[in-house]
Amino acid sequence: MTNVAILNLVFGLYVLAAVVYGAFLLLRSNGVWLAGLGLLSLGALTHLAAVIVRWVEAGHPPFTNLYESFICFSLMTALVYVGLELKYRPRKLGLFACLLAIGGLAYAKRLDPAIPPLMPALNSRWLTVHVVVYFAAYAALGISFIAWVAYLVTTRKGEQETSENDRLQLMESIGHQTIVVAFPLLTLGLITGAVWAERAWGRYWGWDPKETWALITWIVYAFYLHMRYIKGWRGRRMAFIAAVGFAVAMFTFLGLKYLPVSEQSIHIYGT
Prior knowledge:
With about 270 residues, this protein is mainly alpha-helical. It folds into two domains: about 1-120, Four Helix Bundle (Hemerythrin (Met), subunit A), CATH 1.20.120; about 125-270, no CATH class. The protein has helices spanning about 5-25, 30-60, 65-90, 95-110, 125-155, 160-200, 210-230, 235-255. The chain is flat, with a radius of gyration of 19 Å.
């Protein structure tokens, strides 16, 4: 099977998983939840196989253009959420994690799947590490955003029931812990990107628009962790900071290319 054919199968598995997770929200059945988790896990494993096939077809790591970037983001989202399910059992977030993975694949399907010639700057062993850690971070931040939105939706004025408090604590814990995981990955992404830049262009940092916004993303999440651990902030204030952070991260990933300044970016190959 070709990479595109396997990805079509993956898309179907993710859609089925979303439908089953949606049914779980109505039925609250452990069997339905396990079916959704099984479909999502199978989709993630098949997705990983598709990336490996693409790697073989291309002859280099498949992380060199926007099509491949969305494939990677969708895969990382599925893998991160499956890991969270096994550890925390955030069952009610499954539908929304599936939709995030589906959205990444759906956008990729709109793009040209052809394998372009490899640019010299991308012919580096640092490419794989840099891109994989960044998309693992973006996936974790996406799940964090979903958890914090669920927290904001669930919170209400007045006294909460005990069961509701437990759910709020779980959403807050997932929203926070995924950022704790993502922040070192963002840091590693900046470091490996700097090393890669030095090898490719002869400088570690050049205030390229992509580099600058990657640093801004790091600063926002550093602020989040500072306010959590130093100032002791919790709850809704942290949810709003996390939402701003995810918006900045997605702007760095997707929105930056629409600014005129991006025309001068040496990262234009990623758009």
